[in-house]
Amino acid sequence: MVAQYNLAEVPSKTVLYNRPATMWRYKEVLPVLEEENIVSLGEGMTPILELKRLQAVYELPNLVLKDESKNPTGSFKARGLSAAVSKAKEFGVNTCIVPTAGNAGGALAAYCAKAGLKAIVVMPRHTPQVFKDECELYGAELILVDGLISDCAKKVAQLKENISCFDISTMKEPYRLEGKKTMGYEIAEQNNWTLPDVILYPTGGGTGLIGMWKAFKEMQQMGWIGDKLPRLYAIQAENCQPVVQTWKGLQPNAKGYVGKPSLANGLAVPNPFAEDMMLKALRESKGQPLAVSDSAMVAAVKEIARKEGLIIAPEGGALWSALLQLVHEGIVQRAEKILLLNTGSGYKYLENIL
Ligand SMILES: Cc1ncc(COP(=O)(O)O)c(C=O)c1O
Hints:
Blueprint: E1 48-50, H1 52-58, E2 63-67, H2 77-91, E3 95-99, H3 103-115, E4 118-124, H4 129-137, E5 141-145, H5 149-160, E6 166-167, H6 175-190, E7 198-202, H7 207-221, E8 231-237, H8 242-247, H9 275-285, E9 288-292, H10 294-308, H11 314-328, E10 338-342, H12 350-353
Parallel strand pairs: 2-10, 3-4, 3-6, 4-5, 7-8, 7-10, 8-9
Antiparallel strand pairs: 1-2
The chain binds pyridoxal-5'-phosphate.
């Protein structure tokens, strides 16, 4: 189930110029019908930063990073949950539930607090403490489960038998995807309606990857951008790399894949529901998936902190390590316009990084 719009009726992109710097500036291509239902904490319009010291040291003159850690609750999950909780409010729902690797739970809790809705967050017990604390501070009910997000999803299915609630599991409702797709709109708008050659994105459930691809296609249909689209690279953790394994033909699909926890908790998604849609976006864009070890992620987070003054999430660190591999293998050329999509703040992971 994917949201569709009558794109022929969307006004010209010049309407955007006087709008607030949040993802809701793209409201005509977002699913909320009445503006009064929008639940916003100021998400979106995150900066695209030039990584000047890394550019110089590694001879990557066009390397930039879109910093989603600047979002409310410190990650890009704010976008999807702003959209989904707004829609829950529009539907008159009282309670929302989500299985999460960490960041989506905090974001759901915050947006439900703002909307006056009850949030139930089901999270792996091994998740760093700060992810749990933020849910409790926002007043959510927190349920801890032994295992990965796939085990949390089973718990959600059980709980739903007795509670009436809106299930906001990744890709099982259409609204989070719509929120996340605004990253694609922003990348185009912030680059004067052109796109980079290459985007690296840390991929768990794949909402951002699929969402950006949808955004590019919508913008093409509306004539907002030209024909050329970026190659998408889906970066996974070596400990949990279902999409890489399917891509390589080592399994028919990820349904039976068994993953291990990763320091990048957002990447520990062993059986992504939307695997087919991810594979389609990767094939159409002429990109590929790639896996990175936890130790390489930590080294990358430390290097980016020291050279660029940014404490990014290990999921974002994975991108830098993967990029060096792709450049080394000649898959990405040094002079290409390369965008690393850092999905979250490293502050929540410090207990595991230092
Ligand atoms: C920081 C971070 N990056 C990436 C991901 C993976 O996101 P997606 O499910 O859109 O692939 C997550 C998911 O929890 C995350 O928290």
